[in-house]
């Protein structure tokens, strides 16, 4: 019995030691390297894609820049690493990337089995269908016997099977390794339907040869909370990654923008003062960040609403409505823990 107790205590000590190493790991590595390595798609307009000059933009890109702003006071200190759907989790698990921000659905099996930790949802989405207007289809329930282009290694495969089985419909699945290939073959008529998250459909439609000839059907057949993730076992880095997103959401709720953030540091609202480090150095000791970390995020990148409108909002080619990505105070799902 004594031996068992000692062994148990030793196991706890070893685990605690491993945890301490993990806690020191990613942030120290990032600081020594001088940049955050962020795994992204690189091919989804509005979320992560470089322009002709190699300048990156998108909601996921701005999330990565928020992490860099918190750590370095420089939102440009990010190395964007395009990763495919099949390699993205391995790249995170092996340390090839520090953060994965790639239109990735937060799900039970991914939480439980992959050794990664989702840090929040930066876009609430759902799977939909895009078809050519020439088909004359108004509903996904009219797609019996259709051929469907789909990217392998995504949650979309199971969602499609479930939807068609539930509605007693048949379909032919045409699977491709990359979303580029799937969209290209759909555009040339290789399949009747292209399916992915509705935000991805809106993005892909802008790249088709004749975008106006295609329509996104009204059905949304799944819940797809898309969000960034980090390797499990490093609570320090997970907290930084988590609150880089939460700070942007809280800033929007509190009315703090990149334009007024300097003025807001003098606010008498205690929530604003805590967020911007006017009174307390939140996260200073445990996270390895100074008191201005959230201020820098808002100043250099913007609040959540600014990021949304800049990348996918009404004045962009995607022209997405805020919908369920509106703040909870306005009927949406965007909600962050309070800064206190």
Notes on the protein architecture:
This protein is α/β, with parallel strands linked by helices and 340 residues long. It has 13 helices and 14 strands. It has helices at residues 2-33, 59-72, 88-93, 108-113, 156-166, 179-187, 198-205, 235-253, 261-264, 270-275, 284-287, 293-300, 304-311, and strands at residues 36-40, 49-50, 56-57, 78-82, 99-100, 116-118, 123-125, 127-132, 146-151, 171-176, 193-197, 214-216, 224-226, 229-231. The strands form five sheets. It has a five-stranded mixed β-sheet with strand order 10-9-11-8-12. The chain has a three-stranded parallel β-sheet with strand order 4-1-5. Strands 2-3 form a two-stranded antiparallel sheet. Strand 2 and strand 3 (56-57) form a beta hairpin. Helix 2 (59-72) crosses helix 8 and helix 2 crosses helix 12. The chain is globular. The chain starts with a helix and ends in a 29-residue tail after the last helix. Mean pLDDT is 89; it is low at 1-23.
The chain-level mean pLDDT equals: 89
Total count of strands: 14
Number of H/I helices: 13
Using only CA atoms, what is the Rg?
Answer: 22 Å
Runs with pLDDT <50, length 5+? 1-23
H/E topology pattern = HEEEHEHEHEEEEHEHEHEEEHHHHHH
Sheet of most strands: 5 strands, mixed
Question: What proportion of the residues is helical, as a percent range?
Answer: 25-40%
Helices and strands: which structural class? alpha/beta
Terminal Cα span: 44 Å
Sheet with most strands: strand arrangement: 10-9-11-8-12
Q: What is the strand content?
A: 15-25%
Shape assignment: globular
- Oligomeric assembly: single chain
């Amino acid at each position: 019995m004594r031996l068992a107790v000692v062994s148990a205590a030793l196991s706890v000590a070893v685990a605690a030691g491993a945890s301490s190493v993990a806690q020191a790991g990613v942030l120290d590595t990032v600081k020594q390297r001088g940049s955050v390595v962020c795994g992204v798609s690189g091919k989804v307009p509005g979320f992560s894609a470089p322009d002709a000059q190699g300048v990156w933009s998108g909601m996921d890109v701005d999330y990565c820049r928020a992490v860099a702003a918190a750590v370095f006071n420089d939102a440009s200190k990010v190395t964007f690493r395009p990763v495919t759907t099949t390699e993205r989790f391995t790249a995170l698990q092996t340390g090839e990337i520090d953060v994965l921000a790639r239109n990735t659905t937060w799900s039970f099996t991914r939480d439980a089995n992959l050794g990664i930790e989702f840090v929040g949802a930066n876009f609430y989405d759902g799977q939909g269908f895009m078809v050519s207007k020439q088909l004359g289809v108004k509903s996904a329930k009219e797609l019996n016997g259709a051929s469907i282009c789909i990217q392998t290694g995504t949650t979309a495969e199971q969602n499609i099977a479930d939807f068609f089985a539930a509605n007693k419909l048949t379909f032919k699945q045409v699977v491709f390794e990359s979303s580029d290939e799937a969209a290209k073959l759909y555009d040339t008529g290789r399949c009747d339907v292209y399916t992915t998250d509705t935000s991805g459909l809106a993005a892909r439609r802008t790249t088709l040869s004749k975008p106006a000839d295609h329509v996104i059907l009204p059905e949304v057949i799944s819940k797809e909370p898309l969000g960034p993730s980090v390797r499990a076992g490093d609570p320090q880095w997970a907290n930084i990654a988590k609150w880089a997103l939460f700070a942007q959401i809280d800033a929007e709720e509190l009315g703090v923008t990149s334009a007024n953030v300097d003025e807001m540091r003098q606010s008498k609202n205690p929530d604003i003062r805590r967020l911007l480090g006017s009174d307390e150095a939140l996260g200073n000791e445990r996270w390895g960040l100074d008191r201005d970390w959230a201020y820098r995020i808002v100043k250099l990148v913007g609040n959540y609403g600014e990021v949304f409108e800049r990348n996918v909002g009404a004045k962009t080619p995607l022209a997405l409505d805020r919908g369920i990505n509106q703040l909870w105070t306005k009927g949406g799902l965007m909600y962050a823990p309070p800064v206190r």
